[in-house]
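User: tokens in, sequence out, please.
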């Protein structure tokens, strides 16, 4: 199951990022170097009652930002999974702000004006509530944009992301949140 979810995640990420344009560099400015491969961060995902329901490890690779999740307390079914712009997780997790979106895109892999930097493939949690999965994104990196003054968070939503509705994919309530911390 883990390999299937990871393969679907990679495929969705690749499809969603096909139209992504490289960031522009100011005239005369040197392009910024990508974060070093191997840079890492973690997040402990908690529900609205403060119970830990999963963990995530984020690792910078040459292919992009690899997000590995280990979920053990989320209801079964499909769930939207996003990077949010603020590293604050006060229930009902609106404190995490909107999706991480430094390029100012609209939401969704299927939106011709999308996707946000924090858009990631849905997670499909089996009946036992346990899931280990990996997704990769090239729209976010372990850099100064993610680790700005107010940080960033990972959020799991109550329902699936439709990959097109702006601003959040009609993903429902935020049911788990974890502040992304450098390792």
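Assistant: Sequence out:
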């Amino acid at each position: 199951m883990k390999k299937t979810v990871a393969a679907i995640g990679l495929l969705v990420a690749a499809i969603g990022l096909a139209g992504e344009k490289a960031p522009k560099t100011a005239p005369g400015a040197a392009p910024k170097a990508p974060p070093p491969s191997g840079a890492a961060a973690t997040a402990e995902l908690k529900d609205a009652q403060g119970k830990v329901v999963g963990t995530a490890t984020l690792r910078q690779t040459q292919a992009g930002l690899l997000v590995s999740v280990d979920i053990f307390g989320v209801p079964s079914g499909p769930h939207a999974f996003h990077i949010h712009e603020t590293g604050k997780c006060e229930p009902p997790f609106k404190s995490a702000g909107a999706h991480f979106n430094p390029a100012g895109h609209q939401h969704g892999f299927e939106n011709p004006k999308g996707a946000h930097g924090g858009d990631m493939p849905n997670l499909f949690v089996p009946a036992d509530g346990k899931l280990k999965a990996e997704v990769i994104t090239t729209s976010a990196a372990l850099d100064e944009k993610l680790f700005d003054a107010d940080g960033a968070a990972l959020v799991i939503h109550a329902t699936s992301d439709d990959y097109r509705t702006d601003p959040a994919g009609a993903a429902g309530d935020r049911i788990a949140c974890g502040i992304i911390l450098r390792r």
